[in-house]
Amino acid sequence: MKAAFLTLILISTFVFADTLDNGQYVLVNPGSQAGGAGTDITNAFSAVTQPVGIIINALNSLCLGPFCDLFQTNPGPCRTPPSLTRFGGSTTNIAGILSNPSADLRSISNFALELPNGFKLSYRSAVDVCAQDFDNQVAFGPGFFALNDSNLSTSLVRPSQPVSVILNYPPTITRPVLLYATGFHRTAAEILQNAQVCPPTKCQNVAFVNGKAIFDAASFSSYIVTQENSNPSPSPSVNPSPGTPSNEIKARCPVGLVVEENTTVSVFFTPNGVPTCVNQGMRIQAIGNNTPQPVTFISCDSQNGQHRFSVDTSEGGSYRVNAEFGKYQSQCVFDVVGRAPTPTPELPVWLALVAASLAFSLARSSKAKATGRKK
Asked: What's the pTM value of the predicted model, to 2 decimals?
């Protein structure tokens, strides 16, 4: 049956060559996919935008519409190396692989990509690195990297198995947290504007060891390590700028005058309506009387996304609190009347009983004396 179709299609090539417009066919080189390298089977027709027929293999067979699915084109092995001039370390030796005449760069096992002192990716599943432009489609810098999930092969950005990642971060980060952002971002600032804490569906087995974030990534976009509860101190004369209003993050300050030395402030975080705890990853700025005040993370309730922070309010005045996580921002304000008064300590029970007994004895003694004088 298949042979009959081949014969019919082969005959059709010559029968209709003079009667059909040349723009109705697309030529494909022998042993390759459309547009591949090789020698044209025939120059009878030219390429068009919307073809009705395709020459698909070295048998000079013409594929017409529904017949196309009867044939499978074998593209053959790829030997076009990827661009890796910016990478080194334990990056896979492509030249060594190509020393094997039958090697195919469309399926490379145990592929590794490393930027010394930057990051390292170790793939557990086979990947297609044929002609991949790693030099221009991978961005990196101190504590971050990103893979362009639009221009790199699917096996590289959405592998069938999680990829082992080692990401170096600056020594100034003493309380690291791993964030990610969807899309391809070339700078740390771009990533942080769109970042969120990496969930278990994307990042697994996360650990921070000697300046390295070690984790398994399910897929790739943009990743960065930053400081937990990073609170850049503004100039004493400058208040933090108001946050962008958002229903997904809400800072809540106490209502009325505050007299406590440490005041609890809440931040409710519900991105896309989902209560989320980022703990110290939430950035808090507390400004009292134009002076940055210490902030301490207390806890987070995963049921409603409520983060609780303690703000040092030992001095009176107006306080402004800015909460920020990635693109989400909110703020609240409250007033402090000053240092709380020191309450009089309560007497222990035993001492109170002694005092009461003594008072009772003194009262009886005074009464007895008064009675004697009357007699």
From this structure: 0.47
